[in-house]
Structure formats: structure tokens, C-alpha cells
Design goal:
By secondary structure, the chain is mostly helical. Helix content is about 60%, strand content about 5%. It has a two-stranded antiparallel sheet. Strand 1 and strand 2 form a beta hairpin. The protein is globular, with a radius of gyration of 19 Å.
């Protein structure tokens, strides 16, 4: 494993210690039904991975709030994608998607254009600034994913990813298959 991965894990452990309550003995805490409730651990890991990703993304000036990373990468990979289609796959409602698009337009990362095929529809495209940011964002998310989930073996990662994709596909219609 690269030294960066070890440093990344050490930093993560240090951040966890900083958040440990210091005023109470919690070692015998009864987790009640949460001890074997998948939804508790999914929500908790989601918060942890999101916080870690925001910290790692700070140098790219894209941190804060959900959806920006997914938007820049999916619009980059699918020029002309409609906001409603993007919202479907990143699980944003219409209002939240509208605010996200506006914020990213103001930052000069994406632009909306009227669809040539359907005049009432809008399509999303990256600006030159957005296109230049894609390789940086992709590199950060790959590195963060490797560091954050570094305690898992390659086989465990494949299994977890397969299970999460299965759950995602169950609740999100028309999910493309992984190659």
C-alpha cells in the first residue's frame, strides 16, 4: 500500500478521535436495534464518507453540499443530459436540482441550453472551466474512495459495491449496468 493511503487512514483515525465524547463513559452503550440494523450503518457511513469527501475536495473548490461532484462528472460524461434525468440518478427533487444547477452555473462550471429536439427541454453542458475540473475531481474521488475504504480487501470492496448497486437498482429505475 502506498504511504499516502496509510497517512490517509491515520488522519481519519485522528479525526474520529477528535469527535469522541470526552465527558462520558460510552464503552457500554446499548445500541438497541441499531446493532444489527443495516439502515443505521448505511446512514452513518454515508455521513462519514460525505464528510471525508468534502474535506478531500476542498482544494478543488467543489466541496460543500451534495450533488456537485455527481453533476460535474455525469454532465461531463453525458453532454446534453437533461436536469430531470440527472436528478433521477442522483436522487434530487426538482427544486433541489434547480438550485444545484443555478449554483454551478454561477460558478461557471455548467451551462443550460435549449434542446434542439424539444424546445421546452433544457440540456446541461460543461463549460471549459467545468471540463478542466473533471480530471481533478475524478482523481480526488478515486483517491478518497481508495483511502476511505482501504481497510477492505479487493474482494470485500467488489462484494460491497455489488450489493450497493443491487440495492440502488432496486429503487432507482433504469440504472445502467456496470461494465
Amino acid at each position: 500500500m502506498a504511504a499516502g493511503g496509510v497517512r490517509g487512514r491515520a488522519a481519519a483515525v485522528d479525526r474520529r478521535r477528535a469527535r469522541v465524547p470526552k465527558t462520558a463513559n460510552y464503552l457500554d452503550l446499548d445500541f438497541d436495534v441499531f446493532v444489527d440494523l443495516l439502515s443505521f450503518f448505511v446512514r452513518s457511513v454515508n455521513l462519514l464518507v460525505s464528510r471525508d469527501l468534502d474535506e478531500k475536495m476542498e482544494p478543488v473548490v467543489l466541496a460543500g453540499g451534495t450533488g456537485k461532484i455527481s453533476t460535474i462528472l455525469l454532465v461531463g460524461a453525458n453532454p446534453g443530459i437533461r436536469p430531470s434525468v440527472l436528478a433521477h440518478f442522483i436522487q434530487k427533487d426538482r427544486s433541489a436540482m434547480g438550485k444545484l444547477v443555478e449554483k454551478m452555473e454561477r460558478a461557471g462550471l455548467i451551462e443550460q441550453k435549449i434542446s434542439a429536439a424539444e424546445r421546452r427541454a433544457k440540456e446541461l453542458y460543461l463549460t471549459s472551466k467545468g471540463r478542466a475540473m473533471v480530471p481533478k475531481v475524478r482523481a480526488v474521488v478515486r483517491r478518497q474512495d481508495d483511502d476511505f475504504f482501504g481497510m477492505l480487501t479487493g474482494e470485500e470492496r467488489k462484494q460491497l459495491l455489488r450489493l450497493l448497486r443491487k440495492i440502488y437498482a432496486r429503487y432507482v429505475e433504469m440504472v445502467p449496468t456496470a461494465d
